[in-house]
Design brief:
single chain; 253 residues; alpha/beta; eight-stranded mixed β-sheet; 8 strands; 39% helix; binds S-adenosylmethionine
Length: 253
């Protein structure tokens, strides 16, 4: 099943994960939300940025373009397959950008190493997002910012032509992540992790027909189990709510 990202290297079809990441990234609403998020985090020349759950590495490249010439981006992903792909795509870019395998809950960096951290659609897949946020807070400098983007799968707007089937589809999507309501939880979770000046940009993303069809195929076993296989019929539509949330590690007193 290709919608689970807790351990991509152990999924049956990592190529599906990659195609889905590329497709999501290319959507105009996702690009606009990300541009707004980049402004919220205050990217500028000379800063050190850590991306967590960097996937294909495409966003790490965008971040690196904004911190040149004296800044640096380090991109970490738990999946060696994703690190290899990102290195193949961007390793020779000449940008101040490195990719490495690691676990957001156990980072190798000393405390206060980075001016900003960026994480997009990763926290929802973690068994323990609170541990991840504590670790991110540790490696940020005082006054540094965390930008987290996540969807709210429980609030996916689905129409399969029948309310019960639409609800089954939403449930099947939500079951793919450890924390399907992560998007809506982000502001509270950042506050609980000690971040201040938390600000939120919510936005919606309508998936094109071909992405909905691919998701329906991937979710077919779950839908069959729920006796809702007709939920994957042609003509279904799907809109995903996303939240970009920024918080600041309190400055040292
Ligand atoms: C849904 S993908 C999103 C990738 C990318 N941020 C994007 O928006 O295209 C989630 C990524 O988080 C990574 N990931 C999952 N658990 C992780 C962990 N504990 N530490 C670091 N990365 C992790 C996965 O390997 C995957 O590449």
């Amino acid at each position: 099943m290709g919608l689970k990202y807790t351990n991509v290297d152990r999924t049956e079809d990592p190529a599906f994960c990659i195609r889905f990441m590329d497709a999501m990234r290319s959507l105009p609403e996702v690009q606009a939300g990300r541009a707004r998020a980049e402004a919220m985090v205050g990217l500028r020349s000379g800063i050190r940025v850590l991306e967590l759950g960097s996937g294909t590495g495409d966003q790490a490249r965008e971040l690196a373009l904004r911190v040149v010439p004296d800044g640096e981006v380090v991109a970490v992903d738990y999946s060696q397959a994703m690190v290899s792909l990102a290195t193949a795509r961007h390793g020779e870019s000449g940008l101040p950008l490195t990719f490495e395998q690691g676990d957001v809950c156990d980072l190798r960096f000393p405390a206060g190493s980075f001016d900003a951290c960026w994480t997009e659609r990763m926290l929802c897949h973690l068994p323990d997002p609170s541990a991840a946020l504590a670790e991110i807070a540790r490696v940020l400098k005082p006054g540094g910012r965390l930008l987290a983007i996540d969807g709210d799968a429980t609030a996916t707007v689905v129409d399969c032509g029948d309310p019960a089937l639409s609800a089954a589809m939403v449930a099947a999507i939500a079951a793919q992540t450890e924390h399907p309501a992560m998007g809506r939880e982000l502001p509270t979770r950042l506050g609980d992790a000690g971040f201040v000046d938390v600000a939120v940009h919510p936005y919606l993303c309508r998936l094109p027909d071909e992405m909905v069809a691919a998701m329906a195929v991937a979710l077919r076993p779950v839908l069959i189990e729920a006796e809702a296989v007709a939920a994957d019929r042609e003509g279904s539509s799907m809109t995903v709510p996303l939240l970009a949330v920024v918080g600041t590690k309190p400055p040292a007193t």
